[in-house]
Write a structure and sequence with these properties.
The chain is of the alpha+beta class. 33% of the residues lie in helices and 24% in strands. It has 13 helices and 17 strands. Strands 1-14-4-9-8-2-7 form a seven-stranded mixed beta sheet, sandwiched between helices. Strand 5 and strand 6 form a beta hairpin. The radius of gyration is 22 Å and the shape is globular. It starts with a strand and ends with a helix. This is Condensation domain-containing protein. It comes from Promicromonospora vindobonensis.
Amino acid sequence: MRVVSAELWEPAPGRVVTWDVLPGGTLPPAPASLTYNQRNHLLGAAAGEPSVWITAAFDVDGPVDEDALEAAFRDLVTRHAGLSAEAVRRPAGVGLVLHEPRALVWLRQDGPVTGTVEATREHLVGELGRRCAPFGYPAFLPAAVSRPDRSTIVLGMDHLHTDAWSTTVVVDDLAALYGEHTGRAAGLPALRSAAPGVAALARATLPARGTALLAAGEPAPPAAAGRAAPQRAEPAGPPAVPAPVGADDPRLATWHGFLRDRGWALPTFPLPLGVPDGERVAQRTVVRPLADASAADTIAARARSAGASTSAAVLAALAAAVADLGGPTVLETLLPVHTRADTAARRSVGWHTTTVPVRIEAAAAGGDTVTDAALAATGKAVRAARELSAVPLEQVVETLPQPLRFPRVDIFQVSYLDYRRLPGHAASAGRRAHHVSAATRADDLQLWVSRTDDGVAVRARMPRTAIAIETVDALLARWAARLAGLVTR
């Protein structure tokens, strides 16, 4: 899976086809509960925040079989209940309803025949921004770029429907369903499931919409922190939702202590980015490797020998790199962590993450060395942070003695995802699978680290200012050097 942003996406030109999906008039939508995160997000969207979408894209052989692809899209929406959700404006605020998948009307639309990568990207990104907004139905865009030899299938989704993990499920499910309907994958087990009734969908737990606490690493509008509640998992039921913990629970106390030490403010990147307080500017995205496959294997082995994980090694090297550039000796950030607890949840599409705080000490060391002691300490800190995922973020916010402060709209966060462990990974390279995110505005640094068969890479999202470019480029170089030091030591 290649993780990029819209401005870096390079879809080859071809004949574009999209689908409009309309609610059918035979069955009225069923009301559904709006989660804490969804309400906060929708209020932000209603105030004018830009669309935040995530797109799953992959290639198939030959020109698109449009009938087979439409059938595959239909099956996918039937299978994943959250894709039937619609956010609505109401006199008293905002709400959520669920449509019956079997009543949806699909209308195919022939788009342009593009001649360049730039024209293809411009058209698709424009359609994604228009169609993948949270209000109205659908908040997703089924599309394809058909070519004689190799075509691209696209499903863009508002963050209401998906997270980074889910994009891998979408690619794997759609590829199998499309193969089933074209007859190119004889013998594959059918992925379709019986469409659940609207009443059953209304009782389902839907994915929470984003807040300034990011889950799966996508930009979100300003809002109070909240827990990303999991979506209905098919067919075994929803993943467990964390229950409130006791007022004297040490995990709740840890959350409070982290925020208290920061003056009740969420973390911000500690080096200069050149954005005045209260302003946001166009984002810049950088995608670069941090370690090749061989180096990543060595780093993983070093981390294991110190009682840590590869993700802990990446964080330890990041903390050291920040300190090398004049930053603090203790790096404070937020980590998105998944909440997929069983096999059924692994194959579901939704926003199944929460967010936890972590402090990483950058131990003083000469040269580019990150010591085994620093790896061990970071491993311990990451394990302790993950234990905090059992505390609902609503409870964290509601029990604070003072209001939570948001120095910036974006939150400094570091996401780590090992795609080798996710559905469909073995086939993703052959499918040229992409996770493409909307390019919006930024006022802080956000990092998404990916481990694949090619090694470790990072996508960095930052404000497009001269200072941020200089700072982040220097940071990525030092980060890579610190990881290289783990290989050569």
